[in-house]
Amino acid sequence: MKRLIICFFALLAAWTGAQAQHPSANAINAKPQQFTLANGMTLIVQVDRRAPTAVHMLWVRAGSMDEVDGKSGVAHVLEHMMFKGTQSATGSTAPGEFSRRVAALGGRENAFTASDYTGYFQQIPASRLEDVIKLEADRFAHNRWPDGEFAKEIEVVKEERRMRTEDEPRALLYETLEATAFVASPYRRPIVGWMNDLDNLRPDDVRAFHRDWYVPANAVVVVAGDVKVPQVRRWAEQYYGQLPTRALPERKPRVEPPQAGVKRVEVKAPAEQAYVALAWKVPGLHNITNPSAEDWDAMALTVLAAVLDGYDGARLQRALVQGQGANAKRVADSAGAGNGLTGRGPQLFVLDGSPAAGRTPAELETALREQVARIAREGVSEAELNRVKTQWMAGEVYQRDSLFYRARKLGANAMLNLPLDADDRLLAHLRTITSQQVQSVATRYFGEDTLTVGVLHPMPPDPQRRSRPMGGMGGRDF
């Protein structure tokens, strides 16, 4: 946090001094442009001259989805190891040197691993963009580190798993829920990995994952900010475009088989409250340009989630937490809804919450399902739909004011093979979703055969369990 604040004020000072050179500072000057480099790597450039800063992101279409059983967590461990040094013909870097160099340039950097991809980013003064392109290209192609660095970092990852999953009851519930809901899909494995797999992971497992998937044709570079497109393209060709290419491993389809009945799982863990999560398998959005019937259903399900929980005082809040409405009784201390709209694998629609004092998880499950059943019976009002759509538009406009947000959206969409204008198309489509479409998906997707129920049963704290520090883990997760 201290580094972020220092860099923020440094960039703010640079921006203030450069106001006279940027008379159109409040305007976004161009639409994003996309190029394919000589070796198959994709480059996306978004010009935005509101401040003399730039965001550089490298995305690799390889996440936990690309792992195999027995090596779960390897994508995330590789993300950590990417900060541990390089070896190339032009020189080498030591562990931690990448971060020190970015800081010396006046920037900040980090990385993140997801199911579908891994990303690395730097936010720097625009004048230092070439330096970070050169650094990241070298790291992408020449990541090298000794076994001793792996031995230290794997312990960091294990501690991260303990703190973020094993010591977090709701995270533990969701890990168990996804492992139960999915049978064939690699989404059943946690991104951080199972502890047994981490115990048995070897340095060469991580090196092999890098060799297999960190291939130019499997990567996308996104640059956004106060830049010139021809110059960025020349730098990208110079540093990224010359990297050697090689064939990717064959991606075998791993289609999730149809579910044939409700699944239930219970987790006992030290916690203050019980918790309930209901997850239904639903279609995802794959074609935003010419949506199929399932694509439209995916968007209608997203609207349904927003009607239930998309603004202060939405249906779940009013009916279950506040206890408003005819014959209503307060059932929950919290209640929420969410739809997994996009991804390389199957998606889930989730309802969750904590029962109020004196209420049971079973009562909350019934109440949550009744809210969807009510929409299936009665539909939703135009006023509700309009409020949801207004909230979306306002939120999107606000978020687009962030250069980092726009770069991240471009990269994430590219990883899912969505077009550059996917967000504009999505908003346009969502604005057309009708009450009848929302009612239709509420009727068709919430039966027993696609449902997995997870219940957290609170237990008293274990007096033998050692306490853990509240500080960061020293890892590279965003």
UniProtKB/TrEMBL annotation:
Pfam families of this UniProt entry? Peptidase_M16, Peptidase_M16_C
Signal peptide extent: 1-20
Which processes are annotated in GO (biological process)?
A: proteolysis
**SUPFAM superfamilies in the cross-refs:** LuxS/MPP-like metallohydrolase
Entry cofactors: Zn(2+)
Q: Example GO molecular function term?
A: metalloendopeptidase activity
Q: Which domain of life is it from?
A: Bacteria
Does Lipid metabolism appear among the keywords?
no
Q: Which key words are in the record?
A: Signal
> What InterPro entries does the entry give?
Metalloenz_LuxS/M16, MPP/UQCRC_Complex, Pept_M16_N, Pept_M16_Zn_BS, Peptidase_M16_C
* Signal among keywords: yes
Q: Give positions of region: Disordered.
A: 457-478
Q: Where is the Peptidase M16 C-terminal domain?
A: 201-391
Q: What region holds the Peptidase M16 N-terminal domain?
A: 48-192
Q: Which family does it belong to?
A: Belongs to the peptidase M16 family.
Q: Supply the name of the protein.
A: Peptidase M16-like protein
Organism of origin: Hylemonella gracilis ATCC 19624
